[in-house]
């Protein structure tokens, strides 16, 4: 798969160029996206990405990240980064449209598995996409509006997708009302989301991982090489020291 990736090797050539004493990078938290972002009991926003930001700031004292205490829906977040109103998005998967509008930093920050879930009283078992296709109109897949998985599943062809639900809670309601056969979501995150909505007894996650997808940090396409290098080098050092992998293990 070929897409636009800003590799660390390319960045090293510009790493010597001067940056200001403190470089501010703007982002926002994504709602309905645990474990990337979670609402804490004290009202603060925590989660994998917030912890990653603090590690990056510790790794590179000239780097500061702002905006992680403000929720912005994914579609709006992508638009704001695409047009330079924000600098980056933390933790999203690849799809064809994103390749045209963002710079992907390497390495990926973690890997997710996408699963189908059904009502607990539904005996269906799915091992591959052909099993879903064979269900025809009885195999509607509910996906959160704006999810990067939509384009990937559309590219597979033959699947019936309903992406009208604006949140996972909306899609769980549609599933329980039999307005779809499956909900498609990622793990880590799926199990905790069902627990949060008190639905573990009513919805079951099917065991087959239908996709395994690396999640990246995506940057504004016209970010200056020096700013990109500062951030990317800090991320690479976290990966080299195993701190990035250790953080991912805390969010199984």
TrEMBL record:
Tree of life domain: Bacteria
Keyword entries, A-Z: Signal
Domain Solute-binding protein family 3/N-terminal: 31-251
Keyword RNA-binding: no
Gene3D superfamilies listed in its UniProt record: Periplasmic binding protein-like II
Signal sequence coordinates: 1-21
Protein name as annotated: Solute-binding protein family 3/N-terminal domain-containing protein
